[in-house]
User: What shape does this take?
Amino acid sequence: MANLTKTNRRDFLKIAGTTAGGLFIGFNWASCDSPKIQVLSDEEVLSQVHDFNAYLSISPTGDVVIYSPNPELGQNIITSFPMIVAEELDADWSKVRVFQAALDNEKYDRQVTGGSGAMPHSWDRLRKAGATARHLLVAAAAEKLGVPASELTTENGQIFHNGTKKFSYGEMVTDASKLTAPDEVTLKDPKDFKIIGTPIKNVKGKELYTGQPLFGLDFYREGMVNAMVTRPPFGMKIKSVDDSAARSVAGVSDVIVFKNNVAVIGETTWPLMKAKNKLRIEYEPDGTIESSFDHDRIFKELLESKNAKVMRKDGDVESAFKNAAQVVTSEYQCPFLSHSPMEPQNFFAHVKGDKAELVGPTQTPDRARMETAKLLDIPVENITVELTRLGGGFGRRLAADFVVEAVELSKILDKPVKVTWSREDDITGGAYRPAVRYRFQAALDDQGNMIGYKLRGVGINAGNSTRENNFPSGSVENLLIENVEHKSTITTNAWRAPITNFLAYAEQSFLDEVALAGKKDPVKLRLDLLDRAKNNPVGEIHYDIDRMRGVIQTAADKSNWGKNKEVMQGFSVYFSHRSYVAQVANIEMENGQPVLKKITAVTDCGTVVHPTGANQQVRGGIVDGMGHAMFTNMTFENGLPRQRNFDTYRLIRMKEVPEVDVHFVDSGFSPTGLGEPALPPTGGAIANAIFAATGRRIRTQPFIEQKEFSDIKLQIKRT
Amino acid sequence: MANFKLRINGQEHQVDVDDDTPLLWVLRDHLGLVGTKYSCGIAQCGACMVHLNDEAVYSCTLPVSSVGSDKITTIEGLSENGDHPVQKAWADVDVAQCGYCQTGQIMTASAFLKKNPNPSLEEIENVMNRNLCRCGTYHKIREAVAMAAKLK
Assistant: This one.
């Protein structure tokens, strides 16, 4: 029963014991809440539990241990996953303890946080895990009582016969765990859910609010050294290193040049930060060295390129545009973005001969292990990966660059090593949201109907910058979607809602332009297109028309779309990562100035497992989408990012968020994820509201750096 | 290197570090008080907030040599059992997403409420604007500060 929490606690206690005179007090939070009730320690519970399956163990004391396999980075899966297991178990939630599971490919088959995929992947598995254990507990009780299992009911960790309590789960655990689990179990009717759909508090809340060591950067292992690394500008390699000044900093034990990097090593962090600034590193070209003005030129060239890849083609696009009553053409562009989670990248590695131990914040522990195996040329079985909590991820922690450098340094130094990135390292360290430019064209007939649609996406290390089978594909008779990619030395990676984080804004703004040109209401334009896709579909359709229509209509209804002349509104709807989200932004004029006051969001993610978590995922996604659309820019000069920290890399702050009104559509479908889907529609809703209020169409992000935006002096206030 | 005597969470600590070492790294690396977070290192995000004589300060840019005998409180010393009104409000509102910034948010809020026990929402927004939350929990932070003011 290896688990991270135990290991970490031991390690953290060690640091406290060795350097803080044992001042660290190992609180048991449950006992702090109820000091008179004797509560067993985690270790005491874990030492006597019986395992029912990979997710669930129960102790004879009735304490229920639930393992959460997926990395926790703020999506609160560490609360919502156990809720699902506990629901089908009919557990007493107050007896549930949750542990973060370490990487274990035999027990779990998708220990990834990415793509909003955990919930749809695991929903049935988690329910079955709880229901199977319940089945066995009931079977054991039935045998003991000599009655058919069908006569027994369960509630709150107890087993009843004819309404009379017979046993607690704890009393049945030993017998039940000896029984063979059935292949199939009956799952609850969702109307009987008692835990799912309730606002259960974050299981790590108290540890978070009292500053307990939970994150990778908090990890300490006796005997470890700290390392900080200077990485090269994009397109360059090291020519020479003068480390004499860095080595002279008190507290620096070593300077190591490895691969294309220079690491400073020491016991504590601050001397390393100072030493890093004293490194004199000369670089020379190693590929193309790019600046932002190069990207503007590259975009122009790619938009005219004859070598675009056709992603989707329906009908006769050329004829449609030749016969059009009018053609609408528009281009949209977004910059690179850093993920910049609040916790900078870091990882702990200890290479011991042909074995390695990894601990830290990663969205993909399996990738961390595979890349370590590749680097060290050892079998994956020889590598353990324990997960700390992640102080944000946003896709950055899907990469393993920050893992393998810790592994490499541990091997070189033959010591346990924790590598810490400074904020500057984190922002300039690559794996960005790719910069993209889109050209949209629409052919309209004399009624304003869209008879042709063209999209060309050109991106820098963006892969496919389109989502060719997404709306409005399927609803337009003649359609051409193309992609051109520029390969750059600037590294990119998935960034929360990859591609759609900007494509949705561009597309939903463009549809607003199409509605205006065709003299149609923006909501009606979308509904008409969906009608067309429903009644007379064109080619493949990869979205559920009725669910998309559902969120559009509900959002129009909840936002009083078009009903109040004093409120200028912008509409946006997007389907991504299996969920549907429509948003309406409201701008009102105060003293002649536009004020962004409210965003209404309507989401269809199927069953809402954890309402407070889901609500915050939507609000947080909107704040994120809005902040990056409006404020954040990342530009380059000779392969170096110009923005290096939060003084110039501007993130949205409290006073810059409007009211956000969140609604969910109960569509009866199984739950889908919410880490990403609320983000894509936001920029479009706001840009469309800005147009409605001011007649200005903002086609480039971030808004605040565009001339056409700056002089409208948009204010943001909550009502 | 020099020896510094520090008063932290009601206890005296001695550390032997360079004059320019920020209090943040003394807390994290030398005293094991890791509830105070590193995020930007340039007093822009507030993840490192501590109380210096009841005033919220950025510990990432505060050299240990300037602390003297001033009283320092970190998140670990804000309350004995995690039951400071601000911590209770944070739990009630269930504020956190990733949670990394939240100890800094709590330290900013608790220092503010001590001086201004009955703030308006605008005052709350003005003071909490110092702290970044990359997950975007701003609505809940505001709600929790307002709730904590009422809890007092």
